[in-house]
Every structure is written in C-alpha cells, then in structure tokens.
Amino acid sequence: MILTLVGVSYGTLDGTARRARGVGADIMIRPPGSSLIGLSTAPISDRLVGVVAQQPHVALATGTAIQPLSGFDSITGLDLDSFSKMSGGFHYLRGGPFKTDQDMLVDEYYAKEKGLHVGDKVRLISHEWNVAGIFESGKLARICVRLPVLQDLMGNSHHLSQIYVKADSEANVQQVLQELRAKLPGYPIYTMEEFTSLLSINSVGMLRSFIGVVIGVAVIVGFIVVFMAMYTAVLERTREIGILKAVGASSGFILNLLIRETLLLSLLGALVGILLTYVTQWLMQYTVPASLTQETVYSWWPIAGAIAVGGSLLGVIVPAIRAVQQDATEALSYE
Amino acid sequence: MSEQPIIKVQNLYKTYRAGDVDVHALQGANLQVERGEFVSVVGASGSGKSTLFNILGALTSPTSGTVSIAGNNLENLSGPERAALRKRTVGFVFQKYNLLPTLTAEDNIRIVQYIGGRGMNFSPAFREILDVLGIGDRMKHKPRALSGGQQQRVAIARALVNEPSILLADEPTGNLDSQNTTAVLELLRRLNRDLGQTILMITHDQDAAAYGGRTIRMRDGQILD
User: What confidence tens digit (pLDDT) does each residue in A153-191 have?
Assistant: First the structure.
C-alpha cells in the first residue's frame, strides 16, 4: 500500500515534469502566489505575453489557460500556432489540429482510458467537444482546446494560467530569467530545468504532508493488522506453546521461534508487497493511463520493509511474552 | 546403603482456584517410586491424579509439601531449572497425544531432541526404540494422517528421545480403542522390562493399571496404598 501510494505520487509528478519539458520552453511564468502544482484560476492578463515577447533575447512567448476537471484531469487552452513553434508541434497519431472552436485534441493515454476516437463527441465543462486529433503523449497536457474558447467558458477572457518563454539561445536563458524576475516582481518565474527539478515530493508541501498521512495511516493499520494476526496466532497456538514448554523448551527458545517466524513472515510480506506494486502499476497503465502513473521508487523498498518488519516485531512482542509466561498446564488444556 | 527413590513425594498439598471456589486437589499425598519401577496410579475423576502428574513433571508447583525427582528437590528449582528437568529427566505421554500438528512425526521427535541439546540425529539406541514402537514407516506423516494408536506411539518415542529417567504417562490409552490400548500398554511394559525405564502411569482403568508392576490408588487428593 505504501509503495503504491509513493509510486503514484512520484509517477504523477514525473509525468507532469515530462510534459512540461515537452513544451520546449526555457522559462515559465506562473501567477503570483501560485503553488508549484495545481492551477485553479487564470489570473495573468494575456497582454503580459506581448510584454514578455518584447524582452531582449526572447524568441517566443505563449500563454495557456488551465481548467481543472474532476479527479486528476484538466483541460488546457492554447494557441496552437505559437505552441507548435515553441514545441515543434504535436505528433498526431490520428486526426489533426483544430479546425473549429469545438475541436479538442487529446493525448493517446487519455484517448485509451476514455475509449475516444477521432470524430467522437465529448462533453466537458458543460460544452460539447469534437475529438479532432489524438497526439503522442508528453507535450504540455492531456486535453487541449483553443485558448479563447476555454477562456470564454471559464468566464475569464484574456487571462492566462501560465506563460511559457523561449530564449533566442540557450546561453541567454539566465539573462532573460533575471530580467523577467526584475520586471515582474511577485511572479514565480522558473527555468524549465528548475521547475521540473522542483517537481519532487519534498518540494510540493501538500504532497509531502499527504504522503506523511498515508504512511502514518499505513503504519497504524499495518501495526493493528499484524498485532491482531499475531495475537490470534499466539492464541491459536496456546496448546502448541504448552507442548513446547512441557518438553522443556525455555521461554527464550519459544520467543526466539515466534520472532524468527514473524521476521520471515514480514520479510515475505514485504516481498509480496513489492511484487504487488508491479501488479498495481500494470493495472493503472491499462485502466487509468491518463489519470495515474505509478513509478517504482526503489529508495522506498527498504523503508517499507522496515515498517513491515518493525510493525510485526512490535506486534508479536506483547502476545509472545504473555504466551511464554502462561502456565504450561493451562496452555495444554486450551482447546 | 540403598539407592534413593527416583520419585519421593511427602505431604503434598495443592489447592487451586476455580472461579470463586478453592479446589483442594491434593491433601497430604505421599509417594515413593524406585528406579526401574512401573507404577500405575488409579483413581476416579477428581481424585487428584492429574494434579499429581503435573507436579511430578514440574509443570505446576505444589501449594506445600516436598517433591524430589531424580534427586532434584522441585521446591528449590527456578523456572529455567524446571524447564531443564522437563527436557532431560522427565518424559511426558499425554492422553491427547499433544503432538505439534504442523510437524511430521519425525520432526515432532527431532524438535524435542533439539530442545534437549542432543542435536538432530537419532542415536542407534533410539532407533531400536523406534523399531520396538513400530512406527518407522509413518515417520514422514503429520499427526492428522496417523491413527490414535500411531500418534500415541510417536508421543512415547518423543517422550523417550532424550533418555529421561522417568516416563510420566497421563491416561495414555484414554483415547484409544481396545486393540491400540493393548498395543500401547504392552509397549510400556516392554520398555520397562527390557530397557529398565521407570514409568509412572495414571489411569482410571483397572485393566490398564494391571500392566504396571505396582498399583497405587488415589482418592480425595490422597494416596491410599
């Protein structure tokens, strides 16, 4: 459970970073006061794109608006011409670019998850869209529509969620960054490299707290399950423990036996848990490829293993000590 | 000077609490068993036979009185010393066999030998005992695959694997049919006669008691003769 949730958290962030890199921009401007991930409004005036584009060494600037949908999905409004110039354009697997305002482009995973084909009608944010093209994943977003159409539907005309900037050469990126930061105080402005590196569990405060809560719950649930399982196991084995005591086994021998068994079980459990993460990974890939991505986070294997072993051992100590202190005659008469 | 009795019980009392009631299970019992004897203890239910068995096997402590087993005064023994006595000096055979259900017959015996600090391999002398018990072909089976008689023979083998001075048997034929009862009792008699094994067998069956060299009777927590 822990490994799957950690894997999903890492995978989702890495997916976001991969798509951000796919934009082809060098610099990203986000709204003042915004968090690293998640955009629920479009507070930047689209006139800022023109201002930014006029800056020295700026080759191109383009803005996008993002409207969150249910779950993990969001819909992105973009200016296809400038976006194509910046990113090299979408690689269409089926269909092609927008022709009308009702047209929508979706990436291959979203299309697969929702069973969409070119020409299908999709109703999103109270609007009926026509799937015009399905593009190769890894560029900006999973669902794209024309920017002005989305802005109107959001009731936020001429406003953007973020602006992407491309410098005229790689050597000038830092200079452009400094100038933009000086010109637009209060706006979080990152190089794309910086932005993607910030997309890690520790940089996203909310996610770090979420993971902490998940691990905490997993540890508590795991502890209770193991404790109850071992307590029941010891109860069921009361007679066996009585037999061992009757034939002269010391308390240390019986405790040693129970602890070694617990260690073996918990390590096997951790191994099965690791194998199960591959099953959940496969399930997510085939059932919800657009929403959730699960990565294998190797650094968490020993942590999850330690939680399993530590929880099991703590769970076994109380009933084990109780069992060995029990009178052998009482234990032998246990049915 | 004559040899000390292997079991010597003097003025033994045991009172335990069952709910709100004090049960006086033993009320001044006295007993002596010589090395190499096969003694049967008979008595009705509630006469204190099993309590005596548990005290002699150091499974529980008496309320008062003295018990000496192979020269060890149980009163002076700590918990680990009692465990040591159970692993080397006393072997148990129970009415319900008390084999570990997840282990094979062989492993049930081996684990007791291991606990006794005698390694995992059976000695040639013990292999002869296994031949006498006639369970050689059932050793790889788990208890659930064995008949009651076979399980009790495995239990006897287990009780003897560490060469105890005393074999304590509590109603060893209580769960067996007449054919297996006879077989097990004959085995006990043979172990006593041929190998000189000291045996104290508790039973409520007079016919079974007759296999012993001496029969003593218990009533109301006392030994009558």
Answer: 888 888 888 888 988 888 888 888 888 888 888 888 888
Q: Which of B82, B85, B87 to mutate to test the interface with A (most CBs of A within 10 A)?
A: B87
Q: Write the pLDDT tens digit of every residue in A23-51.
A: 778 888 888 877 655 555 668 888 888 88
Token match 């060469």: residue? B163
In 3D space, the residue among B131, B48, B117, B58 whose CA is nearest the CA of residue B92 turns out to be: B58
Suggest the residue from B98, B158, B160, B168 to mutate for an interface test with chain A (most A CBs closer than 10 A): B98
Query: Buried b vs exposed e over A118-152: b needs ≥16 C-beta within 10 Å?
Result: beeeeebeebebbbbbbbebbbbbbbbbbbebbbe
Q: Closest by alpha carbon to B50, among B79, B92, B5?
A: B92
Nearest to B133 by CA among B155, B112, B116: B155
With a threshold of 0.80, does the pTM exceed it? Answer: no
CA distance B207 to B212: 10
B60 contact residues in A (CB cutoff 8 A): 327-329
Within 8 A by CB and 6+ apart from B135, the residues are: B105, B150, B153, B154, B157
pLDDT in tens, B27-62: 999 999 999 999 999 999 889 999 999 999 999 889
Cross-strand pairs, B223: B218
Q: What are phi and psi of B107, to 5 degrees?
A: -70, -30
- From B56, B153, B43, select the one nearest B106 (Cα to Cα): B153
Tell me, what's the pLDDT at B1? 46
Question: Model ipTM?
Answer: 0.89
Query: How large is the C-alpha radius of gyration of chain A?
Result: 28
Q: In what order do the strands lie in the sheet with B64-69?
A: B21-33, B7-18, B64-69, B72-73
Cβ-proximal residues to A34 (8 Å cutoff; 6+ apart), any chain: A188
Q: Select from B77, B47, B80 the least CA-distant residue to B203.
A: B47
Provide the 8-state DSSP code for B4.
P
Which residues, at least 6 apart from B118, have a Cβ–Cβ distance to it below 8 Å?
B161, B162
